[in-house]
Known about the structure:
By secondary structure, the chain is an alpha+beta fold. The protein has 4 helices and 8 strands; from the N terminus they run H-E-E-H-E-E-H-E-E-H-E-E.
Amino acid sequence: MTIATFDITLLDIAAxxxxxxxxxxxxxxxxxxxxxxxxxxxxxxxxxxxxKLRGCIGSARAWRPLATDVAINAFGAAFEDPRFDPVDNxxxxxxxxxxxLLGPATPMTVSSEAELAAALRPGRDGAIxxxxxxxxxxxxxxxxxxxxxxxxxxxxxxxxxxxRWSPRVCAERFETRSVTRPARGR
Length: 186
């Protein structure tokens, strides 16, 4: 399977799951997809409408077949992101669909916010912060709106609900590969 075919198939699964959600109120169950999508994979599905965020849901770890992860996260981005009302039929053709395929997360040896900010590669690294039950994740795409590394780390700590750095805080980095389908209404 070529990369282009792989990407198109993922985007088709995401779009079908959103359509299925509009009709049935639940994600599609991908069937008859290539064996390459049966491997465990993690992704985030991000939806935009007219250039504005419309939903984003994903998995930080690979724990189910990638085809299933895409279908469930596309449904979640469209209907379960608590920041937005559910997508409706009138919006469907105006949605840009972006799937960020997460590479493996690798632990970082840092002991402060400043060390983390200095170690991150802007535009390239996504980051995960963990402190007990608190956790937050930023995709590399967040660098577009928060290009300053110190601000990136500060916002990530806020998202995770971590008030201050402590020896318990664990940091991980990961990279993504994104595939995008522009809105059909354009």
